[in-house]
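Kindly inspect both lines:
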Amino acid sequence: MTDANAPTDDTLRRWLLQQLTDADAQALDARLMHDDALAERLREAETDLIDDAARGALGADDAEAFRRYRLVDPQTRERLVAARAFARLREEEGGQEVVRRPHRRRLAWLAAAAIAAAAIVLPMRWTSPPATLPTYVLLAQTARGAEAALTLPAPQTAVRLQVEVADATRRYALAIETNGRRTPLARDLVPREADGYAYVEARVEAALLGQGRRRVVLIAASGEVERDWTVVVGAAGE
């Protein structure tokens, strides 16, 4: 039986963006405490909101509220990075949705769980086209100092690295170090910005990554190392 008093999807989104009145927000808070079905709907509404933010589909007011109230949560920021990667792959496939909407929601949650568990976005592979590259996202909070190295499968051809940067006005280079020897991966990278985040992106050939324990280094134009990540390519990553 349908609950005629159940909040609409729009109401749930407005709650997420703190656009409800205090009275309406408090009433919804109380209901969420004991309504598991509603809590699940809220999680789905949040996934859709993050997906819209990743695609640049939010209006100006909603985008500002999203930045102000949702991006303060590190997990939301990580999910946004994953959603951007999915959105980019969809764009490369001509803007076609390659999965049905409920399945896309499950994929977004799996991507978020993968980030939380392994501190890196797992390869985001679609069934077509074959030329789509697996994408790996390196976030600032998973830089050197994390408890464990990041792991990724040995690529067959190439991968796309997306790396969060601190300053969108600077240019960057990426390099990989093995046993103290540094090999350039990409130079003169111009940061992109979306929803308050800045990142650089580069296609990296499999031969440059190699296999084994590596150190991915983000280098500012001045030559200083801004941050680095320890990764294990292949073996433990497969």
